[in-house]
Amino acid sequence: MDNRRHVVNVSGGKDSVAMLLRMLELGQRVDEILFMDAQLELSDTYKYLDKLESHIRRKITRLRSEKNFFRLFYTQITRGKMKGKIRGFPMVNFPCWWERDGKGKIMDRHNRGQIVHIGYAADEERRLKRFSDKGKSIEFRFPLIEWGWEEKDCFKYLEKKDLINPIYRQGYKRNGCWLCPRQNKEALRCLYNNYPNLWRILRTLEEDSPLGFGFRSPLSKLEEEWNKKYF
């Protein structure tokens, strides 16, 4: 008898939520619904998760790291060329230290020995390679790929249920850490337009980070570009 638990990872994004709701509709086994709270999601995503929890009448486990992004951001480097400077933002061309230390390790430890369902759509199979080295301790399954559901299918499915995360109405294409230096220009503009307080924090972090924000243009230049269009 297989005693492993079936864990469904939900981020609040359209794909993982569509996967969860469809699994529940089909009567598939769901032992735990897991949200990895990096403490850096947009406020609307947190409200959306509350709404989702009420809709399905199931608890969502909210897993949180004991580590804090801002504390690590301002931690001094103790060796190498950058010794004495603060860590600052993750470098764009390297694996994200927050993804690893603040999210990935915690989730892997929590899910070890279980069957974990990931909401990757059928048109993003390229992302599967990141799970190849974890297969010994965790069995990963990808229901959306098995069903042939692409991102557009997930969006339409949630639209019919009136269960779209409001950040998509603001123009976001994906959810995630609001201060991620890997987000595109459109996402940054959404932050600027909809979350001015967070934008101001991001500007401060950019100034403090030894290598800046890591985006191809300084945030001040983006502001100038966007503001010119209003005049």
CATH topology: Rossmann fold
Which architecture per CATH? 3-Layer(aba) Sandwich
The total count of strands amounts to: 5
Give the topology string: H per helix, E per strand.
EHEHEHHEEHHHHH
Subunit arrangement of the protein: single chain
Class inferred from helices and paired strands: alpha/beta
Give the averaged pLDDT, no decimals: 92
Characterization of this structure:
The chain has 231 residues and is of the alpha/beta class. It has a single domain (6-169), classed as Rossmann fold, CATH 3.40.50.620. Helix content is 41%, strand content 9%. It contains nine helices and five strands. It has helices at 14-25, 43-56, 69-73, 97-111, 143-147, 151-160, 185-194, 196-208, 219-228; strands at 6-9, 32-37, 60-64, 115-117, 139-141. It has a five-stranded parallel β-sheet with strand order 3-2-1-4-5, covered by helices on one side. Strand 1 (6-9), helix 1 (14-25) and strand 2 form a beta-alpha-beta unit. Helix 1 crosses helix 6. It is globular and about 55 Å long. The protein starts with 5 loop residues before the first strand and ends with a helix.
